[in-house]
Amino acid sequence: MFTTLLIIHGLLAVALLGSITHQTAAACWPATSKASFVSAFRGVAGARYTVANIILYVVTGVLGGVIYTAYRIAVRPYLESAQLWSINGSFELKEQFVAIGLGMLPLYWFVWRTPLDAKLASARVAITAILCFIVWYSFLVGHVLNNVRGLFGR
Amino acid sequence: MSISRVFPIFAAAFAVIYVVAVEANWALVTYHPRLNEWEFLTKPSKSGPAMHWFGWLGTSILAASAVSLAALPLTRRWQPPIWIGWVVPLLVMVSFLYFLRSFFLR
């Protein structure tokens, strides 16, 4: 069951990664034309991603919380016995960053409310960029950890 | 009076309370994954490890909600600055780098 949940967790994380990266690009580096691939990537309507990102963040986090119990029993003891301290510490950081991001979600929703408030533009950039960093960091750490020791792997 | 006016306070309070909850181990609940058993408040490990992360989240959600509710009447005349809702969490993230530095400096 945990392997299935891990795969679903990973797929949802990929969706969140793409969605929040689009929104961050639109907030930090807005484009008016969609002439090239890069400008089309940046030229999305960022506000349309907000609710989807919140749902994906929460659902991915809940699934991660379920998988975390198996990680604690099967993976972390291996990391400790193999003295993979930096990888172990990277996951410790991930859980703290994800938690802090969770607390920012109401404010994230607030700054992306439509019609967009021009006075909140810098806050939109900062909050979205922080959440984007948390998602990217969490995704990469999760990916590396799964490569080091997949759940119940040998 | 819109509840959304306290969202910056919630984000800042959540981050500060969370880091304090982690460092002081103030967990609302403890989970024992080997036994599949939940306990109220911070408890030591029994058979296998004890997990407090869910408890730290619970503590932070409850306490930050209480702080936000207490601050709600103040926001009738005062709009909390939005920046506290991202600068404080950012500082807390940096503080975790410091608290967890031993993992990376071995």
Give an overview of the whole structure.
The complex is a heterodimer of chains A (154) and B (106). Chain A is mainly alpha-helical and 154 residues long. Chain A has one domain (2-148). In chain A, 78% of the residues lie in helices and 0% in strands. Chain A starts with a helix and ends in a 6-residue tail after the last helix. By secondary structure, chain B is mainly alpha-helical. Chain B has one domain. Chain B contains four helices and two strands. In chain B, strands 1-2 form a two-stranded antiparallel sheet. In chain B, a hairpin with a 4-residue loop joins strand 1 and strand 2 (37-40). In chain B, helix 1 (7-24) runs antiparallel to helix 2 and helix 1 packs parallel to helix 3. Chain B starts with 6 loop residues before the first helix and ends with a helix. The A-B interface holds A 65, 68-70, 72-73, 76, 83, 85-86, 88-90, 92-93, 95-97, 99-104, 106-107, 109-111, 113, 120, 123, 126-127, 130 and B 4, 7-8, 10-11, 14-15, 18-19, 22, 31, 33-34, 48-49, 51, 53-54, 56-57, 60-61, 64, 82-83, 85-86, 89-90, 92-93, 96-97, 100, 102-104, 106.
Question: TL;DR?
Answer:
The complex is a heterodimer of chains A (154) and B (106). By secondary structure, chain A is an all-alpha fold.
Name the features.
heterodimer; A: 154 residues; mainly alpha; 0% strand; elongated; B: 106 residues; two-stranded antiparallel ribbon; 2 strands
Outline the fold blueprint.
The complex is a heterodimer of chains A (154) and B (106).
Chain A: H1 2-28, H2 37-42, H3 50-81, H4 85-111, H5 121-148
Helix pairs in contact in A: 1-3, 1-5, 3-4, 4-5
Chain B: H1 7-24, E1 29-32, E2 37-40, H2 53-71, H3 84-99, H4 101-104
Helix pairs in contact in B: 1-2, 1-3
